[in-house]
Backbone:
């Protein structure tokens, strides 16, 4: 075999080997998906803050499937859930999984979410496990859950002065409050109208 033939065979082997490695490891190398408007990327998730409009703006106007509509900046907990689904069918009120995620959201809020006007936001947390979409399992009311999760929250950071009591005077729905330094959790009556944060599921 000539030198040219040996180089061709060697080059072909290298190309096939490289292609094999690319095929095997391509699932490990995937760029982060972009967040479509009005969602913003924080860490590796996409979020929507109802207060991301100017403080004087009462509604978030948007177009979805060629229909224009407005989502209020402040709503009660139940309507905030519906508001998230209206913005995107895959969206729901935010679930905070860790202290790191709480810190990332807090850093974003410090500079971009009009916290001087809206420092309190609904999250997807609630007291008691939902046995179905309309009812709460009353035996679980001492714990807090995210959405339809079967197990209590694995991360909380209720401030001592906002720690919910067992007599349920604080309400049933979990909000996030930006204190200027950090984001903390509190419990409020679900019919209070405040801003809200959604995330893409």
Residues:
């Amino acid at each position: 075999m000539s030198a040219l033939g040996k180089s061709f065979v060697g080059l072909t082997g290298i190309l096939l080997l490289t292609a094999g490695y690319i095929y095997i490891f391509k699932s490990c190398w995937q760029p982060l998906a972009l967040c479509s408007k009005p969602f913003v990327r924080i860490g590796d998730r996409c979020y929507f803050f109802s207060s991301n409009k100017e403080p004087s703006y009462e509604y978030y106007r948007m177009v979805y499937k060629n229909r224009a509509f407005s989502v209020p900046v402040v709503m009660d907990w139940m309507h905030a859930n519906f508001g998230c689904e209206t913005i995107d069918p895959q969206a729901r009120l935010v679930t905070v999984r860790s202290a790191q995620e709480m810190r990332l959201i807090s850093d974003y809020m410090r500079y971009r979410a009009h916290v001087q006007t809206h420092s309190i936001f609904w999250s997807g947390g609630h007291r008691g496990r939902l046995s179905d979409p309309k009812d709460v399992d009353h035996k679980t009311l001492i714990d807090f859950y995210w959405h339809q999760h079967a197990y209590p929250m694995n991360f909380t950071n209720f401030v001592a002065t906002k720690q919910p009591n067992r007599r349920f005077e604080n309400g049933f729905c979990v909000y996030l409050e930006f204190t200027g330094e950090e984001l903390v959790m509190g419990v409020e009556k679900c019919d209070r109208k405040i801003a809200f944060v959604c995330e893409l599921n």
Remarks:
- The first strand starts at residue 40 and ends at 42.
- The helical segments are 3-25, 77-87, 99-112.
- The longest helix spans residues 3-25.
- Confidence is low (pLDDT under 50) at residues 21-31.
